[in-house]
Design goal:
Elements: H1 5-20, E1 27-30, E2 37-42, E3 45-47, E4 53-58, E5 61-64, E6 71-75, E7 79-81, E8 90-93, E9 96-99, E10 107-112, E11 115-117, E12 126-129
Antiparallel strand pairs: 1-2, 1-12, 2-3, 3-4, 4-5, 5-6, 6-7, 7-8, 8-9, 9-10, 10-11, 11-12
Length: 132
């Protein structure tokens, strides 16, 4: 059974990377260093390499599938919410994205360019290729 937190972790990860690279072109999340490109981040668009836009970054809003869609998540410097006034579902704590409303929540992902890791002390799960 897939945890309910995993889809939010994926969106949070893309939010963190997308906001970090919002105006960088040609960045990729890869399967391994120099390996298959899994996700492309090109300006404000997040897609499969060469594919249609999956997520569009509109300021602090993440729009899924269509640049005119309603925001799926709202991301700011401190947290991720389903709406501007919604409950915090994740918080940014340095290089970590943590589950819940507090910085003592479980680490969902650690981003330290160019590595994506489950925690700051764990081995890399995906490398990021592109500008930092």
């Amino acid at each position: 059974m897939i945890s309910r937190a995993k889809p939010w972790a994926a969106f949070s990860l893309l939010a963190l990377i997308g906001n970090t690279l919002a105006f960088a072109s040609g960045s990729f999340i890869c399967q391994e260093p120099g390996g298959k490109r899994l996700i492309q981040i090109d300006g404000k668009d997040i897609s499969k390499p060469g594919g249609k836009i999956l997520i569009y970054i509109d300021g602090n809003d993440l729009l899924v599938g269509d640049i005119h869609a309603k925001a799926t998540l709202v991301v700011d410097d401190d947290d991720v919410r389903p709406s501007p006034s919604g409950l915090k579902i994740a918080v940014f704590d340095g290089d970590n994205i943590r589950h819940g409303a507090r910085v003592n929540g479980k680490v969902l992902i650690n981003y330290h360019h160019p590595d994506l890791c489950p925690t700051s002390s764990a081995n890399r799960i995906y490398p990021l290729k592109g500008p930092n």
